[in-house]
Structure formats: structure tokens, C-alpha cells
Specification:
Strand order of the largest sheet: 5-4-3-2-1-9-6
Structural class: alpha+beta
Strand content: 15-25%
Number of strands: 13
Low-confidence stretches: 260-264
Largest sheet: 7 strands, mixed
Number of helices: 8
Helix content: 25-40%
Order of helices and strands: HHHHEHEEEEHHEEEEHEEEE
Radius of gyration: 20 Å
Distance between the termini: 49 Å
Mean pLDDT: 81
Oligomer: single chain
Shape: globular
Length: about 300
């Protein structure tokens, strides 16, 4: 992770301060859930000049790492829970509003069972369309593969990616960049479904089952007022957050205490309207049910 940040810092030595400059530009505004929009990163990477595919690639890395370095959260799932989550079917349209519950502006999730060691996840605000996107940057140890998911309306995972890539191609054409095959930009669909299942758990009301070694909870970065204007300062070090240890321990105990060989009823996702007047939508992972063979 630090290697990517080092590369960007060497290629664009003042990039972090230049991004902060957009925080103090009165003509620009974007929602708080987005640390810096990709448009700002493109402006920094291109130096206001011509925009081409290598510039866009660097800008995506820059926007991603800028959002991550202010908290440096790394999320590690309990092994058993991880295995159950990634087997959960995503049969219905995704509840896009749930992803705005991302606990930090950008997080890094450790992966296994796919050809990537991890994935950065953050929220992007398209200043051209005023639309939100969920951004995934798959880390293969050498480079980052960026995939956008549109959050405009509830739709299937595949359609969300296609919608966002179509918009990306249209925006690229405005800069004279032709993208002949947007499908070629997509990673393996199974890898995306794998990550979305993990992310749905993090963004659901399971936040109480996410904790650092010292018991601390993830928090979003807060900008600071300095003599030079508003700034975001980087975190000193990574913070490892353990995800799902409580629910995994509970389910293991249930299985062990049944006294007979159990089988597992498949997990699934379920949405609920809660709160006064049923105005708040929450998404919950219904864990596998341990059913003893004697029942």
C-alpha cells in the first residue's frame, strides 16, 4: 500500500498540498462523504494540460490514495465469516444507499481466494453529472485496477458497473480519449461479487463488530484549519480493524454446542425499514443458521 503512495508522491511531489488547495476554492463544492473528487485529482495530475489515459490512471490512484492516507484503515475479516460472506448470493438489485455508510472515506480490505491481495474502496462524486459512484481499486501487488459502480439507482451489480463505465467512456471522449471496449476494463465478475459481499457487511448495521486491537472504532477524517487554509493531514500509521469476530465466535459456539453434527442453512441479505415512521433503510446479513441433524 505504501509503495503506491510513494510512487505517486515521487511522480507528483506537491500533489497532496495541491489537492488540499481545492478545499479552499469557493467556486468548488462536493459532499462531505467524498474527500476529493476525481476531477480535482485529474487537474493535479495533468497540471491543467492535456488529459490522456496515463494521466487518468495516475489521477485515479491519486484520488484513491489521498482518501486512504488520512486514516489508513485496513480491514481484516474473521476467516470463517469471510468464507460464509463470499458464498452469499447477490440475487437482487443492490441497496445503493447502504454504501454511504462506509466507515471511513477510503478503506482497504484484505482479500483471499481471488487474484488480488486487497482492494481499496471509496466514494466518488462526479462533478460533471453530480452523481455518486462507489470506487473499487483492486490491488494485485503491482498496480491498481479501478472499477466504478454507479450509485444513482438500485440495480444489479453488473448493471451498476456497466452504467458507470459507460459514463466514464463518455467523459473520456470529451477529452478526446477513445475507449473502444469498456468491458475490457472490468475485472472478473466473481471478484467483484466477492468484494461487494464483504463491503455490504461493513456498511450494514454490523459496525459494532468492527474494532481495532485496542477496541477503537473506525472514524472518518476531519479537516483542519491552518494559516494556509483547510487541510487534511495523513495518519501516522495503518490501523488494523478486525471484522466479524463477535458473530463468528457466536456461530462457532452454536455449532460446537449442538452436540451432534450440524448443517448450515445458507446465509442471505435482507433489507429493513426501521426507526420512527420507518424512514431509515438498513441492510443486514442474515447469517447461516446452525441446524442440528437431530431436528
Amino acid at each position: 500500500m505504501r509503495e503506491f503512495e510513494k510512487y505517486i508522491s515521487q511522480r507528483y511531489p506537491q500533489c497532496w498540498r495541491e489537492l488540499d488547495g481545492f478545499l479552499n476554492a469557493p467556486e468548488l463544492s462536493w459532499p462531505d462523504w467524498c474527500l476529493y473528487p476525481l476531477a480535482a485529482a485529474i487537474a493535479v495530475a495533468s497540471r491543467g494540460g492535456r488529459v490522456d489515459l496515463p494521466i487518468v490512471a495516475d489521477a485515479q490512484d491519486l484520488a484513491c490514495l489521498a482518501a486512504w492516507r488520512v486514516t489508513r484503515g485496513v480491514y481484516r475479516f474473521d476467516d470463517w465469516l469471510y468464507g460464509e460472506l463470499v458464498k452469499t448470493d447477490i440475487k437482487t438489485d443492490l441497496p445503493m444507499s447502504v454504501f454511504f455508510n462506509l466507515p471511513q472515506h477510503c478503506i482497504y480490505i484484505e482479500l483471499s481466494g481471488v487474484p488480488f491481495c486487497g482492494v481499496f474502496v471509496w466514494l466518488e462524486y462526479d462533478v460533471n453529472t453530480q452523481e455518486a459512484e462507489l470506487r473499487l481499486a483492486f490491488d494485485d501487488g503491482r498496480s491498481l485496477l479501478h472499477v466504478p459502480l454507479s450509485l444513482v439507482f438500485e440495480q444489479s451489480l453488473e448493471d451498476a458497473v456497466k452504467y458507470a463505465l459507460r459514463d466514464a467512456a463518455q467523459n473520456a471522449e470529451k477529452h478526446g480519449i477513445k475507449i473502444a471496449d469498456t468491458q475490457a476494463l472490468m475485472p472478473d465478475f466473481d471478484a467483484m461479487a466477492h468484494v461487494v459481499n464483504l463491503l455490504l457487511f461493513i456498511c450494514s448495521d454490523s459496525i459494532t463488530d468492527i474494532a481495532a486491537a485496542d477496541g477503537g472504532s473506525p472514524r472518518r477524517a476531519v479537516k483542519s484549519k491552518t494559516k494556509q487554509g483547510w487541510r487534511y493531514f495523513p495518519a501516522d500509521k495503518e490501523t488494523l480493524f478486525f471484522v466479524g469476530n463477535k458473530i463468528a465466535a457466536s456461530l462457532r459456539a452454536e455449532a460446537q454446542g449442538s452436540g451432534v453434527a450440524p448443517h448450515v442453512r445458507r446465509a442471505h441479505w435482507h433489507g429493513y425499514w426501521v426507526g420512527q415512521g420507518r424512514t431509515q433503510f438498513v441492510y443486514r446479513w442474515i447469517p447461516p443458521v446452525i441446524v442440528s441433524a437431530s431436528k
